[in-house]
Amino acid sequence: MIYDFGMPAPLARVVEMLASLPGVGPKTALRLGLNLLSRPAADTVALAEALARLHEQVGFCENCGCFAEQTVCHFCNDVRRDAQTVCLVEQPVDVLMMERGHGFRGHYHVLHGRLSPVDGLGPEQLNLAALDKRVASGLKELILATSATVDGEATAHYLARRFTSSGVKITRIARGVPEGGELEYLDEHTLSRALDQRVSWDATSI
Amino acid sequence: MIYDFGMPAPLARVVEMLASLPGVGPKTALRLGLNLLSRPAADTVALAEALARLHEQVGFCENCGCFAEQTVCHFCNDVRRDAQTVCLVEQPVDVLMMERGHGFRGHYHVLHGRLSPVDGLGPEQLNLAALDKRVASGLKELILATSATVDGEATAHYLARRFTSSGVKITRIARGVPEGGELEYLDEHTLSRALDQRVSWDATSI
């Protein structure tokens, strides 16, 4: 503890735990702790209750690995969504990001990680058994939406190879210039990829 | 809510409450919420319990207004401290900052604010009744450690006037060049104040 002098133990405890959160240093933790102490007690108690229930109320869908409040998530339960088109992502949070666009109406599959030999993460550490079953049951398309990093790319390659003989159509999300991106500030890899994978003008006016 | 799409309600609730903390925007709140969900449940429950007890366990000393776990704080209870020398500060957190130096061995008095006509804060909004009593009981020295802002300075002036006839010695914490401060980067007000209030060389070699 950095601020143990004269700080009441209950406050010190809260500050110490807050300081263990990502991006929260001891100074920020102290500021948050003091704020939680200065606001109405009911506010802080409400946050405490929400945190206490977080783990017991939020789990993962046994089918696709998304966040779920029941055994199956609301994507898998939604009959208006196309169960034959599955978008594969690395983390549950990636699903939230995809949904922001409101464009995709298929199902998801969350790997809960990516291949990373350095960190000892191989295929057996990923959520693949459920995916094998889904592919075997006859999917139309599997969209590989792993990240555009070395590990994400390697994971996509591995999965493409794994399911190549299954007959499912395998696609990879496009990479190129981000919306609003100025060429001036773009790295050369993105730019050369955007040039290589240029599409016919008609296809861009969707 | 910014991320309501596909996010389980219990997580959305936590994220929304975290986003109300100072310096925590929706993106940081989401990152913190996801971190709290991904770490062991016991960690998050421990934070929840610490928060639930924070307000009920931490109050203010009825004598000086510092943070206190009982009715009187551990500064006021410490017989090795000089009860005749009182350092007056604006906020409870200022006491923690003073104590970091380990140099002061007197008591404190927390105003819980400062005079600020713009915000409708006058003397009656401050913790002054208890201070009147302490001064009347015969203090040796009252150190005005309000902040070096316009409002903090005005508050110090007001208090100096209020207690001028009480016989207590009234002092103000020194202002000048901060430790490690390069003159090059210092504002002109601080520098001219440091020059005006220069002290004899002997006094600096403490």
Structure write-up:
Two copies of one chain form a homodimer. By secondary structure, chain A is α/β, with parallel strands linked by helices. Chain A folds into three domains: 9-55, Helicase, Ruva Protein, domain 3; 82-173, Dna Topoisomerase Vi A Subunit, Chain: A, domain 2; 178-206, no CATH class. Helix content of chain A is 42%, strand content 12%. Chain A has nine helices and six strands, in the order αααββαβαβαβαβαα. Chain A has helices at 9-18, 26-38, 41-57, 74-77, 92-100, 129-136, 150-162, 188-196, 201-204; strands at residues 59-60, 67-68, 82-89, 106-110, 141-144, 169-172. In chain A, the strands form two sheets. The first copy, chain A, has a four-stranded parallel beta sheet. A two-stranded antiparallel sheet of chain A has the order 1-2. In chain A, β5, α7 (150-162) and β6 (169-172) form a beta-alpha-beta unit. Chain A is globular. The first copy, chain A, starts with 8 loop residues before the first helix and ends with a helix. The mean pLDDT of chain A is 88. The interface between A and B is large, with 56 and 56 residues.
Write a short abstract of this structure.
The first copy, chain A, has 9 helices and 6 strands; from the N terminus they run H-H-H-E-E-H-E-H-E-H-E-H-E-H-H.
